[in-house]
Amino acid sequence: MTSSLDPIWDIDNIQRLSMASLLDFFNRFSLGTMAVDRQGRIAWIHDKYAEFLGLNSPAEALGRQVEEIIPNSRMREVVQSGKPIMLDIISIRGHSLVITRLPLRDESDRVFGAFAFALYDDLDQLRPLVSRFSELQAALESTRKELAQLRRGRGTRYSISSFIGASAAALELKTRARRAAQLDSPVLLLGETGTGKEMLAQGIHAASARASKPFIGVNIAAIPETLLEAEFFGVAPGAYTGADRKGRDGKFKAADGGTLFLDEIGDMPMQIQAKLLRALQEREIEPLGANKVLKINVRIIAATSRNLTELISAGQFRSDLYYRLNVLPIALPPLRERVADIDALCEHLLEQIAAQSGMAQRELSVAARDLLAHYDWPGNVRELGNILEQACMLSDAHVLDASNFLPILPIAKPSFKDIAAERRNGLRRSVASSQPRLDKVISETEKNLIEAALRDSRGNKSLAARTLGISRGKLYQKIEQFDILFNK
Ligand SMILES: Nc1ncnc2c1ncn2[C@@H]1O[C@H](COP(=O)(O)OP(=O)(O)OP(=O)(O)O)[C@@H](O)[C@H]1O
């Protein structure tokens, strides 16, 4: 038991002792301490601090306004606000001091002054902390910038080496892409849907001298024809009422100095083709409603999954625009022509699926690899990714087997199994006799799938295209090709 006479339990005594000990601590370990009263007059100052301030003795400072001794002092602010300033850096007589200022309160919680102590006169001691903080701030800033760039669609996510594949076809394609990155002429990327055209376009931009400038992608098939002109060339202020009253920049302006990626160029209406050709030839654009032209400096990378020469013959694509764009053509082979890359692509895609879903990364059995290598992949790498993702969602197995893929591969199963077995046994029929059957199976399956997707989305083509993992332009093309009728 403790008695009220016990000095340790004498509350007043403890308070007094702790104050004295704290003050002693500050005086010994800090560079200096000081207190002011409610009027901002120096009420107390430690010898060390007085000496540091160039005074002969503490008495010289007592009763004087704090700013007379320390011109940039913020003690008065603490007295007036009643709030501490925990960390501040001030410069006195050529030294930087780290200062902490605290308000002093009486029993009724009224502020009667302020107390300050200077922690360091040598910021070197804080340097590791400050430099770590600066590093973190710089990292945060650069991540913010990257994120903002991606949000504005001006950045690139891919480099040429992100294009997975070591087959002869993939290596040749990457060599051509690297060469194209060294030049500034238009590039035309030709390949089926999902073969990596947009990815390669980003890679070429990222490896080019324009890498620090914007990369702007436009999917022509996804923009209604009536809006395309404004979307490309912009609108002058006052040209329209409503939302465009103030005018707005088009994609050409947004890409100025950088690269403009024109996806699905084969879907561009003839009237806009003429304006695009003029913009490329003259290197200037005329925003809608403006009566002056703007100089532009943009590199064009166009892409299409359609056969442009056929479109020219059909009178749907201007031959002069084709020659203007076809300066550096790069053909992206479909997956079925670079089967050797499927294993590496599967590994890469499974790694991506694991990272995005938070699930453990899966592997493929030999039979599963064999099966995937024998499918024709009309949707190419995008379809391969979708199939792998579905298989991962539907099974918990660490090693995915052929049986995990058979039910989800969009092809008539018995015929596909036959074809796969046939190929494995080296009994592949001659191209002339087997190709029509395979094509027919694929076309029928494609048609069925598209009809089902359109039914499920009640005619919403964007949604159907997304479900199928193809672009809207591709969907339109397929609807036309298979003569699909559907009810909205
Ligand atoms: N060689 C590759 N290596 C890794 N990923 C790839 C490769 N090719 C394509 N992909 C991936 O497949 C998907 C489709 O690629 P991308 O959009 O570049 O194809 P695309 O040819 O532009 O298709 P579309 O014509 O339908 O727009 C993307 O997720 C992309 O990352």
UniProtKB/TrEMBL annotation:
Cited InterPro entries: AAA+_ATPase, AAA_lid_NorR, Homeodomain-like_sf, HTH_Fis, P-loop_NTPase, PAS-like_dom_sf, Sigma_54_int, Sigma_54_int_dom_ATP-bd_1
Listed Pfam families: AAA_lid_14, HTH_8, Sigma54_activat
Keywords: ATP-binding, DNA-binding, Nucleotide-binding, Transcription, Transcription regulation
Keyword Transcription: yes
SMART domains reported in the protein's UniProt record: AAA
PROSITE patterns: SIGMA54_INTERACT_1 (PS00675), SIGMA54_INTERACT_2 (PS00676), SIGMA54_INTERACT_3 (PS00688), SIGMA54_INTERACT_4 (PS50045)
Record GO biological process: regulation of DNA-templated transcription
Sigma-54 factor interaction domain mapped to chain residues: 163-393
Superkingdom, natural source: Bacteria
GO molecular function: ATP binding; sequence-specific DNA binding
The protein, known as: AAA family ATPase
Source species taxonomy: Bacteria, Pseudomonadati, Pseudomonadota, Betaproteobacteria, Burkholderiales
